[in-house]
Amino acid sequence: MFYKDDRLALFIDGSNLYAAAKSLGFDIDYKLLRQEFERRGKLIRAYYYTALLENEDYSPIRPLVDWLHYNGFSMVTKPAREYTDALGRRKVKGNMDVELVVNAMELAPRLDHAVLFSGDGDFRPLVEALQRQGVRVSVVSTMRSQPPMIADELRRQADNFIELDALREVIGRPPREPAPQET
Q1: Which DSSP string do the residues of 94-121 spell out, in sequence order?
Q2: Which of 29, 166, 177, 178 is a plausible cystine mate for 173, CB 3.0–4.6 Å?
Q3: Angle at 172 between CA 153 and CA 10, to 5 degrees
Q4: pTM listed for this prediction
């Protein structure tokens, strides 16, 4: 599905990709991910979308966001909103779907192939719209988790489905060795 002269763009739904990789038991090495898709075509842009808690002194995702920004990823962030649900649980909301869709549609005339890292069925109309503009769309997610992280309608709409677990050896970070225990 990939051709060397394809103009490619990556659209990474950060929280969705993180959840899919975590469900498969591995971490993604974003340097390797970028290199893999640079090998598959002419990488025009690699977008990464995530919401950030602005009022936290330390956010666990901040080092990743900073690293991605300094290493050639186009970061799209916005403040997450905190709220308390009906049961009194603290929840965080930070949907980045609109930003991803707008960027994909703006870039579509300059693309041959879009790679969407998300299993969210809300992106099915985006995939269809990109295809109408002559852009091939690959979706990266997983069916191997329980439950599957890919919406069936999104998988069916895509030109190509890439099982995230099949990329584990290529883009997975090697597991960290446990720290030696003091005796």
Answers
A1: ---HHHHHHHHHHHGGG-SEEEEE---G
A2: 29
A3: 50
A4: 0.89
